[in-house]
TrEMBL record:
The keyword RNA-binding does not apply. One of its GO terms (biological process) is proteolysis. This is Peptidoglycan DD-metalloendopeptidase family protein. The keyword Protease applies. It comes from Dasania phycosphaerae. Gene3D superfamilies: 3.10.450.350, Glucose Permease (Domain IIA) (2.70.70.10). It is found in: Cell envelope.
Amino acid sequence: MSQATPNKPSQHLSQLIAEFPRRHLLIAIAACCLLFITLMVMPSQEAEALRTSQSITLPIASKPIIEEPAVAATPQAPWKELVVQKGDNLSLLFQRAQLTGRDVYEITSSSKKAKQLTQIYPGQKVAFQIDADGKLLALKHQHDLLKSTLYQRAEDGFTVTDLEREPEIRQRHVTATISSSLYTAASKAGLQQNLIMEMANVFGGVIDFVYDIREGDSFSILFQEHFIDGKKVGSGPILAAEFINQDQSYKAYRYEYGNGDIGYYNEQGISMRKAFLRAPLDFTRISSSFNPNRLHPVFKTKRPHRGIDYAAPKGTPVYATGDGRVVEAGYNKANGNYVVIKHGESYTTKYLHFTKRAVKRGQKVKQQQIIGWVGSTGYATGPHLHYEFLVNGVHRNPRTVLRKLPKAVSIAAADKDEFLKQIGSLQMQLAAFQNHHKYAANTSATNNAL
């Protein structure tokens, strides 16, 4: 029985393998494995083409754009503004705006603050915002050019918002020479009355504007003015000022402390505010001076006049000349309406013949606080203020005793650096304005001479 003949190709391959060097054989096996793995991982061209076609981002078919008709925004209801006339009240204004008494009640009863709407004055403006159905949406009450109150309808009534416009602040410089009176010179220079009074208050501790003013005296002030929409609405504080009285110069600069307090000091930091004012009222004349041997104008007998009489129109305000407490405030046959103020332990001031008092007994008062108004009550031949000054119970001449009183305080050492920093720019501005004014005056005089 014969054996099967082996397959020749297989036998030939085995022989080749057996004869192939071992190292080359291992390399060939590794190459074959690598080729197999590569073929398993790489997809066919068709598969690759299919995969690539699925991964491409195609533009998304957008929905057809349907142009809807433009919806106009609901127009804001217009405002209707009314000016309060003499004799007007809130009901009349609402009637003119075609609103009802129910609308008046609805807005004024919406909050406690809304009740201030009942206080309207001629010249003020009230604006109404009313929708097409006649419903009140909002109301604006303009108190003045700076302050307004806005009432806006809400779910449960009206909200109330206070509005205040910030004015544009400009600086202005004014200088003038006195020929008749301070008030006349300042008015001709364009200063408002409140600013004139403020200037008198600034220098009231060093100048007696009743007795000390002379023809040829001059002043120069730098101050603020406030504007709204290009219209002047008021004057701000004095920033710096110089007053030349009888050839003596007094300068004052405004200084604001960190806590908001304001003071006026000279360039050395000495306060312009003295312990007592030189006079208890502004821009009057002395009708009777301190005189121990004066003939009394009513009784025509020789009686000492232990104070100074300032003739002034009835109703002229009278100021406390220093801080203190009112120890007497009443009326009697001789003095009429009078006030007595105690200033510490040593000093007392008396003010007689008021038409009306503004303070009560026991009340604390500040320097320059109004305590009454000039009148002619009691033994008086005409409207005037009788003013007395006592030191330890003894009458002294109010005009001369002030020289013996304690000096004004100086700015604290801790504030000195900040003070000098603040007034430095004011000094330069005041000097620049003054030099410009002198140059303009000299130029004008030269042109007139030519």
